Structures are given as C-alpha cells and as structure tokens.
Amino acid sequence: MAADPLSRVFSALADxxxxxxVARLAVGDAxxxxxxxxxxxTVQAVSKHLRVLEDAGLVSRSRExxxxxxxxxxxxFDLMTKWIERYRRQAEERYRRLDDVLRSMPDDVSPTHRTDxxxxxxxxx
Amino acid sequence: MAADPLSRVFSALADxxxxxxVARLAVGDAxxxxxxxxxxxTVQAVSKHLRVLEDAGLVSRSRExxxxxxxxxxxxFDLMTKWIERYRRQAEERYRRLDDVLRSMPDDVSPTHRTDxxxxxxxxx
DNA sequence: GTCTTCCTCAACCACTTGGTTGAACGAGGA
DNA sequence: TCCTCGTTCAACCAAGTGGTTGAGGAAGAC
Lengths: 125, 125
Description:
mainly alpha, ArsR-like_HTH (chains A, B), ArsR/SmtB family transcription factor (chains A, B), WH-like_DNA-bd_sf (chains A, B), WH_DNA-bd_sf (chains A, B)
C-alpha cells in the first residue's frame, strides 16, 4: 500500500463511490448499512471503501452498541489543499513573469518559451 | 480507465513520482528526458506517467523540433479545490452547528451525536 | 440460553497499474 | 543517403484494486 499520507488521501478520493460517501458524510454521520443502501454493491464492498478512507485518515469509526457510525475527519483535506495551492501559486507566478517578459519584448523575436534551469529536487524513489 | 475528470485528476496525483513531476513542471517546462533524469526508472516509465497526467488534463505536450516539451496546466487544480472546499465547508459548518447544540444543552443529557436524515444523494453506479 | 442484526474477515476472480525490455518512429546532422 | 537522438508503441510481468460469496463475531432482543 502507498506509504505516504498524501498519496493515500489522493488515492482514496480517486474513486467516485468514495467521493460520494465523503459527500454524504459531510451532511452527517452514518452507519455502514445506511451508506451502502443507495449503491447496488454489497455491504462488504462499502466496508472496504470505508477502510480505504479510514487508512487515509478521512473518516473514523466509533463503536456505539452494535452499530459503527462513520464520521468524517475534514482536517485531512488541508494536506491536499496545501500541496495544490503551493504548486498552483508557483505555476501562476511563473506565467505572470512570462507575461511580463513577453510584454517587454520586441515583436520580431519569437519567444522559445523554454526554461533551462535544472530541476532542483531529487527524485523520491 | 476512470471516466470522470475528477477521478482522473485525483488518481493522477496519487503517485509520488507524478506529484514530483508536477512540482518540477511548476518551476518550468521540461522535456521527457530531463524529467526522467533524476529518477532511477526508465524513460518509458516516465513517458507513461506523463500520459496519465496528460489524460487528467494536468499537462500538455507540444511539438518543438524533435523535442516534446511538457507544460503544466494549472487550471485543472480548480476542479479539485472546488470539490474539496465544498465538502470541507459543509463539514465545518455542521460541526459549528453541533457545537451550538451542545453548548445550549443541559449537562445531564448525554448527546447521542447521531443524525438520522437519510442521505439525499443517489449512488452514482 | 437462542435468535437476529450489523458488521468485518478470508478467499477468490477479473481488471488495472507501474514497471520492464525491445522495436519503431520522426526530425536533424554526417 | 545513413546515423543518431529523443520519444513513443507493444508485449509482457508482478502487484494492487474493486468486486463477489461465504463464514464468523459482537451486541441487543426474545
């Protein structure tokens, strides 16, 4: 299984059924049976989906009599939004700078649109 | 392959190598060979990763002589942030309301913390 | 005690995925 | 022309995933 938390969150939300489960849990807590009702898959399959969401830290299950109400943990969303915003802002700033360069350029030179600084990061694997 | 765009974007970013590629493309465009250099996988594997990112709409490849510079398309991030923010806000508002309820409650009654409104959405599959 | 309900665990299956190797393609350069 | 470079396509493989069925476990209800 994917080790890093960010991969787990992205991977968990890559499934439309799991996203729908998250959407419904945002309205209120629910049990596995209630969550499984609208779909035409077995309860076991939904239980598996919930396990994926739980491993990603997106939901938590508590014991309440024989029911296991599922609860949405919205804080993990921050992990994603932080990552996304970081690179979105970086990219947008780059485009803004590029626009400035293009604006200050004479019309007869065709911009090659290449940056040849070597990538600063090392590969993760 | 996953049909809906949101699943494709989430799935594309669920891989740490692909996230690293996106991070490096935020700095500037690069060719497949340049992108593959830091990793100890083959160029073909990186080309496959780029195809996944391209299918998700996150990058675009243009033809420039025999090189194929890869370009980051940051607009697709909006798709994710919109989805995330929607349910995060919904969940947070629910917690706020729950806090109000708890605050206005007498101390001797134990809150059961259950919402029994049936989920309004129908399942997608 | 015995039921019934709700849920999870364990196998199993079809399909996808991330990686490999090898071959082929397109565009310049000799 | 032929060669080389950068890239992609094709086939293959091990591992992961989403689904199934069947069995088992935990807590009320009888």
